[in-house]
Write a structure and sequence with these properties.
The complex is a heterodimer. By secondary structure, chain A is an alpha+beta fold. Chain A has 9 helices and 17 strands. In chain A, the strands form 4 sheets. In chain A, strands 9, 10, 13, 14, 15, 16 and 17 form a 7-stranded mixed sheet that branches. Chain A has a 4-stranded antiparallel sheet with strand order 1-2-6-4, with no helix packed on it. In chain A, helix 1 runs antiparallel to helix 2 and helix 4 packs antiparallel against helix 5. In chain B, helix 3 runs antiparallel to helix 4. At the A-B interface, helix 1, helix 2, strand 3 and strand 5 of A face helix 4, helix 5, helix 6 and helix 7 of B.
C-alpha cells in the first residue's frame, strides 16, 4: 500500500473518530469525500501488468569507448489500459549514459507499445542488463504495482587497443606449421640459412654455383630457413596490489589493452595463443588459433578486474603447465621484486619468457604530491626498477619497460631487435 | 503539467471560500481568518516544500473539523474538503510529472488523471450530500456501529491490497 493511501486513511479515521467523540454528524460527513476517493483508488489497484519487454542492444562487437545505442520496447499485451506506467532501466553500477533517458512515465493503452532509447558509453567489461523496474498506478496515482521484469541482455565490451606489428619473437621451440617465425631449421623458406653438400634430387635452382666453383667436382645446395608458428602463452597479472588507479585511468586497463594487442597480433600471425589471468584462481583461455580464439581472448580480457587474494599474492602458484613445454610466455605485469624468482624458474623450465611491464613508477609519479623530496623519491624508485629489470635481462628474460604514455609497438620492436637469439640449440640440429 | 498547476491554484483559491462563509455566518471570524491564512500559507509553502501538501491538507481538515464542532453546517464545509483534496491530489500529480526526466503522452496522462479525480470529487460530493438531503436520526450506537463498519471494512480493503 502506498504512503498516500495510508495518509488518506489516517485522515479519514481521524475525522470519523472526532465525529463520534464530538457527536457531530458534520464531522462524519467530512470523512465521506476522503473515503470515496480512497475506495475508488483501491478499486482500481493495478495487478501485475501483462507487458512484453524487448531490448535491442549491439551484439558482441562492442569495443571500449564505443557508443552503444540501446532501445527498450514495451508492449502492453494485456486487455487493460495502463493509466500511468513508469519504466526504469536498472543499469549496472558505473554505467555512463551519454544521451537519451533510461526511464519513462507514460500512459499505455492495451495493445500499444512504446520505447525508451538511450546511448551508453561503453566501458570495458561484461555487463548484464537484466531487470527493468516497472510501476503501474491507478488513475488517481494512489495504489501501485511495482516490480521488476527480466529482459536479459548481455553486453561484452572488449578492450580498445593500438594494433601491433608482427612480433619477431624467438621462441625455444616452434610448431610444425608454417608461419612468420624463423625456426632455425633448414627447409622451405625465403631467408638464406646455410649451405650443405648437394644430394641427389635437390633442385638445380638451389645449387650454390659460387661454392661449387671453388671446390673440385663438388656441388653445394643452398638451404633456407623454415618459417614456423609457435605456442605462445599470454599471462596477465591482475593482482590488486599491482593495480594503480588515477581517476578513471588504471594500470590494469593499460595492461589489458597491451595483452589484447599482443593476442591480436600473434593470432594474426597464425600462432597458437592461450591466455591466463593471474590473480584469483585459474582463469583464462586454453591455447588455440584463429578468429574464434581472438574473440574468446577478448571476451575474457573484457572481464579482467583487479583481484585481491592472499593465496595469489605472489607468483608462486603460477600454473605453468597450462602452456605447452618450451612455449613462449609473455607476461604482462608491472612486476614486483618477489616475482623475479618465479620468472627465473619459468626460464629454467625451458619456457621463453618475455615480460611487458607497464612502468608503475612513472604512472604513480603523477600521484605524488609536489614536495621537495618528490624528485629524489622518483629517482630512487626509477633506479630500483632499472636494476630489477637488468637482473631479469641478465637471467635471459626479455623485458620491455613500458611507460604507458608511449606507444607499446615501438618499444617491443626495438627491444626484440636488440635481443640476441636465446642460448642453446633451437630446433632440430643441423 | 501546466494545467495541473493551474487547476491546483483554482482549487486552492476555492477551498476556503465555502467554509469561511459558514464560519462568518456562525460569527467565528477569527477561524475564517485562520482558514484563509492557512490556504495562502499552503499555496506559498508548496512552492518551496513538497511536504506542504500533506501538511496543508491535514491542517485544513483539522480546521474544518473544528468548524464542524462549532456547529457550522456541513454543506458549507463539504466544498472545502473536496477542494482541499483536489489541491493535495494535483500537487502530488504535478510533483510526479516534474520528477520525470522523460514523459510521453503528457496530455493523455493528464486527462486520465483529471477524469479519475473528477469522478472521485463528483461521487464524494454526491455521497456526502446524501445525509444532508435524507436526514436520518441515528442513535449514538448506530452511528458508532456504522463508523466501526466503515473503519473495519476500509482496513480490510487496505490490508488486502
Amino acid at each position: 500500500m502506498s504512503s498516500r493511501a495510508m495518509f488518506l486513511a489516517a485522515l479519514a479515521y481521524g475525522l470519523v473518530l472526532f465525529g463520534l467523540a464530538s457527536m457531530k454528524s458534520a464531522s462524519l460527513i467530512l470523512a465521506i469525500p476522503l473515503l470515496v476517493y480512497l475506495i475508488l483508488a483501491l478499486r482500481q489497484t493495478p495487478d501485475r501488468p501483462t507487458l512484453r519487454l524487448e531490448r535491442i542492444a549491439p551484439g558482441e562487437a562492442a569495443v571500449e569507448g564505443d557508443l552503444l545505442p540501446i532501445t527498450l520496447t514495451i508492449h502492453n499485451e494485456g486487455d487493460r489500459d495502463l493509466a500511468k506506467l513508469h519504466v526504469c532501466e536498472q543499469l549496472p553500477h558505473g554505467s555512463v549514459v551519454e544521451s537519451g533517458q533510461t526511464e519513462l512515465l507514460t500512459s499505455l493503452p492495451a495493445g500499444e507499445s512504446t520505447e525508451i532509447s538511450y546511448t551508453l558509453a561503453a566501458q570495458r567489461g561484461a555487463f548484464d542488463l537484466a531487470a527493468v523496474a516497472v510501476s503501474v498506478w491507478d488513475g488517481l496515482g494512489v495504489m501501485a504495482w511495482s516490480g521488476e521484469i527480466e529482459v536479459a541482455t548481455h553486453l561484452t565490451v572488449t578492450p580498445r587497443y593500438q594494433p601491433l606489428r608482427s612480433l619477431a619473437i624467438r621462441p625455444l621451440r616452434t610448431k610444425g606449421f608454417s608461419g612468420p617465425l624463423a625456426s632455425r631449421q633448414s627447409g622451405s623458406g625465403s631467408d638464406f640459412f646455410g649451405v650443405r653438400e648437394y644430394q641427389m634430387g635437390d633442385p638445380l635452382r638451389r645449387i650454390n654455383w659460387r661454392a661449387a666453383a671453388r671446390h673440385h667436382e663438388q656441388l653445394f645446395t643452398n638451404e633456407f630457413e623454415q618459417e614456423r608458428i609457435a605456442d605462445i602463452g599470454l599471462i596477465l597479472d591482475m593482482r590488486s596490489e599491482h593495480v594503480f588507479r588515477i581517476g578513471p585511468d588504471s594500470l590494469l586497463d593499460h595492461a589489458v589493452r597491451a595483452t589484447a594487442a599482443l593476442a591480436d597480433s600473434l593470432l594474426q600471425d597464425g600462432h597458437r595463443v592461450g591466455l591466463l589471468l593471474y590473480g584469483f584462481g585459474l582463469d583464462g583461455v586454453l591455447p588455440g588459433y584463429g578468429k574464434g580464439q581472438r574473440d574468446r581472448i577478448m571476451r575474457k580480457l573484457a572481464e579482467a578486474r583487479p583481484v585481491s587474494s592472499q593465496v595469489f599474492r605472489s607468483l608462486k602458484y603460477l600454473p605453468t603447465r597450462v602452456f605447452p613445454a618450451r612455449a613462449q610466455l609473455i607476461f604482462v605485469s608491472p612486476l614486483s621484486d618477489n616475482d623475479e624468482t618465479v620468472l627465473f624458474r619459468l626460464r629454467a623450465h625451458g619456457y621463453g619468457v618475455l615480460v611487458i611491464s607497464p612502468n608503475s613508477v612513472e604512472f604513480e609519479a603523477q600521484l605524488l604530491p609536489d614536495e621537495p623530496l618528490r624528485a629524489l623519491a622518483i629517482r630512487l624508485a626509477r633506479a630500483e626498477r632499472r636494476i630489477f629489470l637488468r637482473r631479469l635481462r641478465q637471467g635471459g628474460i626479455i623485458t620491455v619497460d613500458w611507460p604507458v604514455d608511449r606507444p607499446l609497438d615501438d618499444l617491443i620492436q626495438i627491444t626484440l631487435r636488440q635481443t640476441p637469439p636465446p642460448h642453446g640449440r633451437i630446433g632440430r640440429p643441423l | 503539467m501546466r494545467q495541473a498547476l493551474i487547476w491546483r491554484y483554482i482549487f486552492l483559491a476555492a477551498a476556503p471560500v465555502g467554509p469561511a462563509v459558514g464560519l462568518v455566518i456562525q460569527d467565528v471570524w477569527w477561524l475564517a481568518g485562520v482558514l484563509l491564512v492557512t490556504a495562502v500559507a499552503w499555496g506559498v509553502g508548496r512552492s518551496y516544500y513538497q511536504a506542504a501538501d500533506p501538511v496543508g491538507l491535514t491542517i485544513f481538515l483539522l480546521i474544518l473539523a473544528y468548524a464542524a464542532w462549532l456547529d457550522v453546517p456541513a454543506y458549507w464545509l463539504i466544498g472545502g474538503v473536496l477542494a482541499a483534496l483536489a489541491v493535495w491530489d494535483l500537487g502530488d500529480f504535478h510533483a510526479r510529472l516534474v520528477e520525470q526526466a522523460t514523459m510521453e503522452n503528457e496530455a493523455v496522462l493528464w486527462h486520465a488523471h483529471w477524469r479519475a479525480l473528477a469522478l472521485a470529487l463528483l461521487l464524494g460530493l454526491l455521497i456526502s450530500s446524501m445525509p444532508l438531503i435524507i436526514r436520518l436520526e441515528l442513535s449514538f450506537w448506530l452511528a458508532f456501529g456504522l463508523a466501526l463498519f466503515v473503519v473495519i471494512a476500509l482496513s480490510r480493503l487496505l490490508r488486502r491490497t
